[in-house]
Protein backbone atom coordinates (compact mmCIF):
# COMPACT_ATOMS: atom_id res chain seq x y z
CA UNK A 1 0.00 0.00 0.00
CA UNK A 2 1.34 3.43 -0.96
CA UNK A 3 0.35 6.57 0.96
CA UNK A 4 0.29 10.06 -0.54
CA UNK A 5 -1.15 13.42 0.37
CA UNK A 6 -0.98 13.22 4.14
CA UNK A 7 -3.11 16.33 4.61
CA UNK A 8 -6.00 15.00 2.55
CA UNK A 9 -9.28 14.26 4.39
CA UNK A 10 -9.89 11.26 2.15
CA UNK A 11 -9.91 7.79 3.61
CA UNK A 12 -9.57 4.78 1.32
CA UNK A 13 -10.70 1.36 2.46
CA UNK A 14 -9.80 -1.93 0.83
CA UNK A 15 -10.02 -5.37 2.34
CA UNK A 16 -11.05 -3.90 5.70
CA UNK A 17 -7.92 -1.69 6.17
CA UNK A 18 -8.10 2.07 6.74
CA UNK A 19 -5.77 5.06 6.85
CA UNK A 20 -7.47 7.96 8.59
CA UNK A 21 -6.90 11.41 7.14
CA UNK A 22 -4.70 10.09 4.34
CA UNK A 23 -5.08 9.12 0.74
CA UNK A 24 -4.07 5.54 0.11
CA UNK A 25 -3.15 3.85 -3.10
CA UNK A 26 -5.44 1.23 -4.59
CA UNK A 27 -4.27 -2.26 -3.61
CA UNK A 28 -7.40 -4.23 -4.38
CA UNK A 29 -11.07 -3.37 -4.31
CA UNK A 30 -11.07 0.31 -3.26
CA UNK A 31 -13.85 2.24 -1.55
CA UNK A 32 -13.56 5.93 -0.61
CA UNK A 33 -15.41 7.82 2.11
CA UNK A 34 -15.03 11.32 3.49
CA UNK A 35 -14.16 11.02 7.18
CA UNK A 36 -13.59 13.31 10.14
CA UNK A 37 -10.12 14.82 10.38
CA UNK A 38 -7.96 12.39 12.31
CA UNK A 39 -10.83 9.93 12.69
CA UNK A 40 -10.34 6.25 12.00
CA UNK A 41 -12.79 4.73 9.56
CA UNK A 42 -13.35 1.03 9.08
CA UNK A 43 -16.37 -0.65 7.56
CA UNK A 44 -15.91 -4.40 8.11
CA UNK A 45 -15.56 -6.90 10.92
CA UNK A 46 -18.05 -5.09 13.13
CA UNK A 47 -16.42 -1.62 13.16
CA UNK A 48 -18.64 1.37 12.35
CA UNK A 49 -17.79 4.18 9.95
CA UNK A 50 -18.19 6.87 12.61
CA UNK A 51 -18.57 10.33 11.10
CA UNK A 52 -17.97 9.12 7.57
CA UNK A 53 -19.94 10.33 4.56
CA UNK A 54 -20.09 8.26 1.42
CA UNK A 55 -18.78 10.19 -1.56
CA UNK A 56 -20.49 9.61 -4.89
CA UNK A 57 -23.90 8.77 -6.25
CA UNK A 58 -26.24 5.92 -5.51
CA UNK A 59 -24.18 3.47 -7.55
CA UNK A 60 -21.05 4.18 -5.52
CA UNK A 61 -22.97 3.87 -2.26
CA UNK A 62 -24.53 0.61 -3.37
CA UNK A 63 -21.16 -0.78 -4.41
CA UNK A 64 -19.66 0.04 -1.03
CA UNK A 65 -22.56 -1.43 0.91
CA UNK A 66 -22.52 -4.56 -1.26
CA UNK A 67 -18.77 -4.93 -0.80
CA UNK A 68 -19.01 -4.56 2.97
CA UNK A 69 -21.80 -7.13 3.14
CA UNK A 70 -19.77 -9.55 1.04
CA UNK A 71 -16.71 -9.00 3.24
CA UNK A 72 -18.68 -9.62 6.43
CA UNK A 73 -20.28 -12.75 4.98
CA UNK A 74 -16.90 -14.06 3.85
CA UNK A 75 -15.41 -13.42 7.27
CA UNK A 76 -18.29 -15.16 9.05
CA UNK A 77 -18.01 -18.31 6.94
CA UNK A 78 -14.24 -18.41 6.53
CA UNK A 79 -12.79 -17.23 9.81
CA UNK A 80 -15.74 -16.71 12.13
CA UNK A 81 -15.98 -13.96 14.73
CA UNK A 82 -15.69 -13.25 18.43
CA UNK A 83 -18.79 -12.89 20.62
CA UNK A 84 -19.47 -12.44 24.33
CA UNK A 85 -16.76 -9.81 24.83
CA UNK A 86 -14.29 -11.89 22.78
CA UNK A 87 -14.33 -14.84 25.18
CA UNK A 88 -16.21 -17.04 22.70
CA UNK A 89 -15.26 -17.69 19.09
CA UNK A 90 -18.08 -18.55 16.66
CA UNK A 91 -17.82 -20.07 13.20
CA UNK A 92 -20.39 -21.31 10.70
CA UNK A 93 -20.10 -24.34 8.40
CA UNK A 94 -22.17 -26.01 5.69
CA UNK A 95 -22.25 -29.82 5.80
CA UNK A 96 -20.83 -31.01 2.46
CA UNK A 97 -21.71 -34.15 0.51
CA UNK A 98 -18.32 -35.73 1.26
CA UNK A 99 -18.85 -35.22 5.02
CA UNK A 100 -21.88 -37.50 5.33
CA UNK A 101 -22.13 -41.25 5.74
CA UNK A 102 -24.41 -43.91 4.24
CA UNK A 103 -27.38 -42.65 6.27
CA UNK A 104 -26.97 -39.14 4.76
CA UNK A 105 -25.95 -37.51 8.04
CA UNK A 106 -22.64 -36.07 9.17
CA UNK A 107 -20.23 -38.62 10.58
CA UNK A 108 -18.52 -38.47 13.96
CA UNK A 109 -15.24 -37.80 12.14
CA UNK A 110 -16.87 -34.84 10.40
CA UNK A 111 -17.97 -33.33 13.70
CA UNK A 112 -14.54 -33.80 15.23
CA UNK A 113 -12.86 -32.21 12.20
CA UNK A 114 -15.17 -29.19 12.46
CA UNK A 115 -14.36 -28.84 16.16
CA UNK A 116 -10.65 -28.95 15.38
CA UNK A 117 -10.99 -26.41 12.57
CA UNK A 118 -12.90 -24.01 14.82
CA UNK A 119 -10.30 -24.35 17.57
CA UNK A 120 -7.39 -23.59 15.22
CA UNK A 121 -9.19 -20.61 13.69
CA UNK A 122 -9.90 -19.36 17.22
CA UNK A 123 -6.17 -19.30 17.94
CA UNK A 124 -5.37 -17.72 14.58
CA UNK A 125 -8.02 -15.01 14.86
CA UNK A 126 -6.97 -14.16 18.41
CA UNK A 127 -3.51 -13.16 17.18
CA UNK A 128 -1.82 -15.87 19.26
CA UNK A 129 -0.98 -18.26 16.43
CA UNK A 130 2.61 -18.77 15.41
CA UNK A 131 4.11 -21.41 13.10
CA UNK A 132 2.84 -24.41 15.02
CA UNK A 133 -0.49 -26.25 14.78
CA UNK A 134 -2.31 -23.96 17.21
CA UNK A 135 0.88 -23.07 19.09
CA UNK A 136 1.29 -19.55 20.48
CA UNK A 137 4.28 -17.30 19.82
CA UNK A 138 5.90 -18.11 23.17
CA UNK A 139 5.34 -21.82 22.60
CA UNK A 140 7.01 -21.70 19.19
CA UNK A 141 10.04 -19.95 20.66
CA UNK A 142 10.44 -22.93 23.01
CA UNK A 143 9.54 -25.62 20.42
CA UNK A 144 6.37 -26.52 22.33
CA UNK A 145 3.10 -27.85 20.92
CA UNK A 146 -0.36 -28.70 22.24
CA UNK A 147 -1.41 -32.37 22.47
CA UNK A 148 -4.85 -33.59 23.42
CA UNK A 149 -5.22 -36.05 26.30
CA UNK A 150 -9.00 -36.48 26.39
CA UNK A 151 -12.05 -35.60 24.29
CA UNK A 152 -15.69 -36.16 25.21
CA UNK A 153 -18.43 -35.46 22.66
CA UNK A 154 -22.22 -35.84 23.09
CA UNK A 155 -24.46 -35.70 20.02
CA UNK A 156 -28.20 -35.09 20.35
CA UNK A 157 -28.80 -34.91 16.59
CA UNK A 158 -26.64 -35.28 13.50
CA UNK A 159 -26.86 -32.68 10.76
CA UNK A 160 -27.67 -33.68 7.20
CA UNK A 161 -26.17 -32.77 3.84
CA UNK A 162 -26.65 -29.06 3.19
CA UNK A 163 -27.47 -28.15 6.80
CA UNK A 164 -25.71 -25.13 8.28
CA UNK A 165 -24.22 -25.43 11.75
CA UNK A 166 -22.86 -22.77 14.10
CA UNK A 167 -20.00 -23.72 16.42
CA UNK A 168 -18.94 -21.83 19.55
CA UNK A 169 -15.65 -22.56 21.31
CA UNK A 170 -13.72 -21.17 24.26
CA UNK A 171 -10.87 -22.17 26.57
CA UNK A 172 -10.21 -22.41 30.30
CA UNK A 173 -7.46 -23.57 32.63
CA UNK A 174 -7.16 -27.29 33.40
CA UNK A 175 -5.01 -27.89 36.45
CA UNK A 176 -1.63 -26.16 36.74
CA UNK A 177 -0.21 -26.99 33.33
CA UNK A 178 -3.13 -27.82 31.07
CA UNK A 179 -5.93 -26.17 29.16
CA UNK A 180 -9.54 -27.17 28.61
CA UNK A 181 -11.41 -26.38 25.41
CA UNK A 182 -15.19 -26.64 25.10
CA UNK A 183 -17.53 -26.47 22.13
CA UNK A 184 -21.22 -26.36 21.35
CA UNK A 185 -22.73 -26.96 17.92
CA UNK A 186 -26.08 -25.36 17.07
CA UNK A 187 -28.45 -25.74 14.18
CA UNK A 188 -27.95 -22.40 12.43
CA UNK A 189 -31.64 -21.94 11.65
CA UNK A 190 -33.25 -22.94 14.93
CA UNK A 191 -30.31 -22.21 17.29
CA UNK A 192 -30.97 -25.59 18.91
CA UNK A 193 -27.86 -27.06 20.57
CA UNK A 194 -27.28 -30.40 18.86
CA UNK A 195 -23.76 -31.30 20.07
CA UNK A 196 -21.61 -30.62 23.13
CA UNK A 197 -17.92 -31.39 23.49
CA UNK A 198 -15.03 -30.82 25.86
CA UNK A 199 -11.32 -31.63 25.72
CA UNK A 200 -8.15 -31.45 27.79
CA UNK A 201 -4.76 -30.41 26.43
CA UNK A 202 -1.17 -30.46 27.69
CA UNK A 203 2.11 -29.15 26.31
CA UNK A 204 4.77 -31.31 24.65
CA UNK A 205 8.24 -30.50 23.34
CA UNK A 206 8.14 -30.84 19.57
CA UNK A 207 11.53 -32.57 19.26
CA UNK A 208 11.94 -34.64 22.44
CA UNK A 209 8.19 -35.57 22.47
CA UNK A 210 8.21 -35.20 26.25
CA UNK A 211 5.48 -33.43 28.22
CA UNK A 212 6.37 -30.00 29.56
CA UNK A 213 5.14 -27.66 32.24
CA UNK A 214 3.35 -24.60 30.94
CA UNK A 215 5.85 -21.70 30.91
CA UNK A 216 4.63 -18.57 32.66
CA UNK A 217 5.02 -16.62 29.40
CA UNK A 218 2.58 -18.99 27.69
CA UNK A 219 0.19 -18.78 30.63
CA UNK A 220 0.17 -14.99 30.30
CA UNK A 221 -0.64 -15.31 26.59
CA UNK A 222 -3.68 -17.54 27.00
CA UNK A 223 -5.06 -16.38 30.37
CA UNK A 224 -6.95 -13.35 28.94
CA UNK A 225 -9.05 -15.75 26.85
CA UNK A 226 -10.12 -18.05 29.71
CA UNK A 227 -13.84 -18.54 30.26
CA UNK A 228 -14.75 -21.05 32.99
CA UNK A 229 -17.91 -22.45 31.42
CA UNK A 230 -18.50 -26.18 30.99
CA UNK A 231 -20.57 -27.90 28.32
CA UNK A 232 -20.28 -31.36 29.92
CA UNK A 233 -20.27 -32.05 33.66
CA UNK A 234 -16.80 -32.69 35.04
CA UNK A 235 -17.99 -35.93 36.69
CA UNK A 236 -19.14 -37.25 33.30
CA UNK A 237 -15.89 -36.25 31.61
CA UNK A 238 -13.53 -37.63 34.26
CA UNK A 239 -15.07 -41.09 34.65
CA UNK A 240 -12.61 -43.92 34.12
CA UNK A 241 -12.47 -45.82 30.82
CA UNK A 242 -11.89 -49.52 31.39
CA UNK A 243 -9.03 -51.22 29.58
CA UNK A 244 -9.74 -54.03 27.13
CA UNK A 245 -7.40 -56.90 26.31
CA UNK A 246 -7.38 -59.81 23.90
CA UNK A 247 -9.46 -61.93 26.32
CA UNK A 248 -12.18 -59.37 27.12
CA UNK A 249 -12.58 -57.92 23.61
CA UNK A 250 -15.31 -59.42 21.43
CA UNK A 251 -14.00 -58.07 18.14
CA UNK A 252 -10.41 -57.43 17.05
CA UNK A 253 -9.23 -55.87 13.82
CA UNK A 254 -5.49 -56.08 13.12
CA UNK A 255 -3.16 -54.68 10.50
CA UNK A 256 -4.30 -51.03 10.67
CA UNK A 257 -1.51 -48.88 9.26
CA UNK A 258 -1.15 -45.08 9.62
CA UNK A 259 -0.49 -43.43 6.26
CA UNK A 260 1.48 -40.31 5.41
CA UNK A 261 -1.79 -38.44 4.90
CA UNK A 262 -2.85 -39.31 8.45
CA UNK A 263 -0.03 -37.16 9.89
CA UNK A 264 -0.55 -33.51 10.86
CA UNK A 265 1.92 -30.63 10.78
CA UNK A 266 3.20 -31.56 14.25
CA UNK A 267 4.36 -34.88 12.78
CA UNK A 268 1.99 -37.11 14.70
CA UNK A 269 -1.24 -38.84 13.75
CA UNK A 270 -4.14 -36.41 13.79
CA UNK A 271 -6.36 -37.21 16.77
CA UNK A 272 -9.47 -37.49 14.56
CA UNK A 273 -7.93 -40.37 12.59
CA UNK A 274 -8.12 -42.65 15.61
CA UNK A 275 -11.93 -42.62 15.50
CA UNK A 276 -12.01 -44.36 12.13
CA UNK A 277 -9.63 -47.06 13.39
CA UNK A 278 -11.74 -47.55 16.52
CA UNK A 279 -14.86 -48.10 14.41
CA UNK A 280 -13.06 -50.73 12.29
CA UNK A 281 -13.73 -53.33 15.01
CA UNK A 282 -17.38 -52.38 15.63
CA UNK A 283 -19.81 -55.02 14.26
CA UNK A 284 -21.39 -54.04 10.94
CA UNK A 285 -24.89 -54.58 12.32
CA UNK A 286 -24.25 -51.94 14.99
CA UNK A 287 -22.95 -49.45 12.42
CA UNK A 288 -26.00 -50.04 10.22
CA UNK A 289 -28.69 -49.88 12.92
CA UNK A 290 -27.25 -47.49 15.54
CA UNK A 291 -25.64 -44.07 15.66
CA UNK A 292 -23.03 -42.79 18.07
CA UNK A 293 -24.75 -40.76 20.78
CA UNK A 294 -21.57 -40.02 22.72
CA UNK A 295 -17.90 -40.87 22.66
CA UNK A 296 -15.06 -40.31 25.12
CA UNK A 297 -11.47 -40.80 23.97
CA UNK A 298 -8.43 -40.98 26.23
CA UNK A 299 -5.15 -40.56 24.35
CA UNK A 300 -2.35 -42.55 25.99
CA UNK A 301 0.61 -42.16 23.63
CA UNK A 302 1.56 -41.31 20.06
CA UNK A 303 1.98 -43.78 17.24
CA UNK A 304 4.35 -43.48 14.29
CA UNK A 305 3.63 -43.96 10.64
CA UNK A 306 5.57 -47.23 10.52
CA UNK A 307 3.67 -48.90 13.39
CA UNK A 308 0.77 -51.32 12.87
CA UNK A 309 -2.29 -50.99 15.11
CA UNK A 310 -4.98 -53.28 16.49
CA UNK A 311 -8.54 -52.15 17.19
CA UNK A 312 -10.44 -53.93 20.01
CA UNK A 313 -14.15 -53.54 20.78
CA UNK A 314 -16.57 -54.93 23.36
CA UNK A 315 -20.33 -54.27 23.03
CA UNK A 316 -22.97 -54.58 25.75
CA UNK A 317 -26.49 -53.30 26.50
CA UNK A 318 -26.66 -49.88 28.07
CA UNK A 319 -27.37 -50.26 31.80
CA UNK A 320 -28.17 -46.68 32.80
CA UNK A 321 -31.83 -45.79 32.97
CA UNK A 322 -33.08 -42.27 32.41
CA UNK A 323 -35.08 -39.98 30.14
CA UNK A 324 -32.34 -40.06 27.48
CA UNK A 325 -32.02 -43.84 27.47
CA UNK A 326 -33.97 -45.84 24.92
CA UNK A 327 -34.82 -49.51 24.83
CA UNK A 328 -32.15 -51.40 22.98
CA UNK A 329 -29.45 -48.75 23.35
CA UNK A 330 -25.88 -50.04 23.55
CA UNK A 331 -22.58 -49.04 25.05
CA UNK A 332 -19.12 -50.07 23.95
CA UNK A 333 -15.55 -50.05 25.17
CA UNK A 334 -12.62 -49.73 22.78
CA UNK A 335 -8.84 -49.92 22.69
CA UNK A 336 -6.31 -49.04 20.03
CA UNK A 337 -2.96 -50.66 20.70
CA UNK A 338 0.30 -51.34 18.92
CA UNK A 339 -0.02 -54.71 17.23
CA UNK A 340 3.50 -55.88 18.08
CA UNK A 341 3.94 -54.74 21.68
CA UNK A 342 0.36 -54.24 22.87
CA UNK A 343 1.17 -50.71 24.09
CA UNK A 344 -1.97 -48.60 24.51
CA UNK A 345 -2.60 -45.77 22.07
CA UNK A 346 -6.21 -44.76 22.78
CA UNK A 347 -8.91 -45.94 25.16
CA UNK A 348 -12.48 -45.08 24.26
CA UNK A 349 -16.02 -45.49 25.51
CA UNK A 350 -19.18 -44.91 23.46
CA UNK A 351 -22.95 -45.00 23.70
CA UNK A 352 -25.14 -45.99 20.76
CA UNK A 353 -28.80 -45.21 20.04
CA UNK A 354 -31.07 -46.93 17.54
CA UNK A 355 -31.38 -44.92 14.33
CA UNK A 356 -34.75 -43.38 13.61
CA UNK A 357 -36.40 -44.33 10.31
CA UNK A 358 -35.35 -41.98 7.50
TrEMBL record:
Family as reported in the entry's similarity comment: Belongs to the acyl-ACP thioesterase family.
CDD domains registered for this protein in UniProt: 4HBT
Localization (cell): Plastid, Chloroplast
GO-annotated cellular components: chloroplast
Region described as Disordered: 310-333
Descriptive protein name: Acyl-[acyl-carrier-protein] hydrolase
Acidic residues bias: start-end ranges: 318-327
Coiled-coil ranges (or none): none
Known EC number: 3.1.2.-
Keywords in alphabetical order: Chloroplast, Fatty acid biosynthesis, Fatty acid metabolism, Hydrolase, Lipid biosynthesis, Lipid metabolism, Plastid, Transit peptide
Domain Acyl-ACP thioesterase N-terminal hotdog: residue ranges: 88-221
Biological role stated in the UniProt entry: Plays an essential role in chain termination during de novo fatty acid synthesis.
Listed GO MF terms: acyl carrier activity; fatty acyl-[ACP] hydrolase activity
Domain Acyl-ACP thioesterase-like C-terminal: 248-352
